[in-house]
Amino acid sequence: MAGKKNGGCGLLVLVVVAGLLGYGYYKSKQDASTAPPSGSDTGGGTGRYVALGDSYTSAPKTGELAGRPAGCARSDNNYPHVVAAKIKPAEFVDVSCGGATTANLAASQSTRNGTNPPQLDAVTSATTLVTLGIGGNDVGFIALAPDCVTAHENAQPCRDKLTAGGDDQLADRIADTADKVGAVLDRIHEKAPKARVVVVGYPTVLPDGNGCWPAVPLGSGDVVYLRGELGRLNDMLKDQAKAHKAGYADTAAPSKGHDVCTSSGTRWVEGLIPASPAAPLHPNARGEAGMAGVVESLVGS
């Protein structure tokens, strides 16, 4: 019985942290979107829009499967599709893929059902708009998952381990990812010098305060710690966008109050057992539409 109980907890936290941490979290302080520098127009029957990103971009299970490989779990109502339907470019290509890291932008990605070519292959000299939602998977939280689950509401096992000795491992990993994101942005500009580029941040997953244990079995200490640490991820993305001639779509601020602890009719991000079609702890269709609204406000029509 003890072994079965521990195994169940381990599986649960893998799902929790994969959703919360593997794909990003929200900023710890208010931020604002910034428009991309001027470039070729996209919309109204002109231009080529290319969407790059991970599962917060591909939006598994929120709609009908779009494109191949099937293993990328790319939905036809994710924020790139919603943006494309609104601005109406002459050409639209969505190559986002669940589980993608910055490495999968320049190299192929194997999935459980097919291989996604290097996402940057879709970016050509004819491209006039690129959205990029990436970075969370590079930080590599999944291996740390078993240490985060707790049966104690006020515990902080992850913080205790990850800051032992005075070195913050998560902060280090986020810092290490910055140069990778910057290099991707430089490569996009090289391949599509006339394109406007928008880095899309991650939306709010958990609320301010102590969270909603035991529905999400993270102790209050770890909720506060992870919120602050993962706020760094969005901070880093915004900084890299500014340094590499890209705009930044802040999806965290508008999604506050729509987190996993809110009602099923309000939330943008689903919980462990989704009440609306979505992957656990990922944006639902409402959330993807909300993210699209931020991007649309930056790129116009």
Summarize the structure.
This protein has 301 residues and is α/β, with parallel strands linked by helices.
Structure description:
- The protein is α/β, with parallel strands linked by helices and 301 residues long.
- Helix 8 (220-243) links the parallel strand 6 and strand 7 (247-249).
- The chain has a five-stranded parallel β-sheet with strand order 2-1-5-6-7, with helices on both faces.
- It has ten helices and seven strands.
What is the residue-mean pLDDT, rounded to a whole number? 88
Radius of gyration: 18 Å
Q: Identify the CATH class.
A: Alpha Beta
Count of discrete structural domains: 1
Strand order of the largest sheet: 2-1-5-6-7
- Give helix and strand order, one letter per element, not per position: HEHHEHEEEHHHEHEHH
Instruction: Give the strand content.
Output: 5-15%
Structural class comes to: alpha/beta
Number of strands: 7
Instruction: Give the distance, in angstroms, between the N- and C-terminal Cα atoms.
Output: 59 Å
Q: Please name the fourth-level CATH homologous superfamily.
A: SGNH hydrolase
CATH architecture annotation name: 3-Layer(aba) Sandwich
Uncertain segments are: 1-11, 20-30
The quaternary structure here is single chain
The portion of residues assigned to helices is 25-40%
Global morphology? globular
The description of the largest β-sheet is: 5 strands, parallel
Please work out how many helical segments DSSP would assign: 10
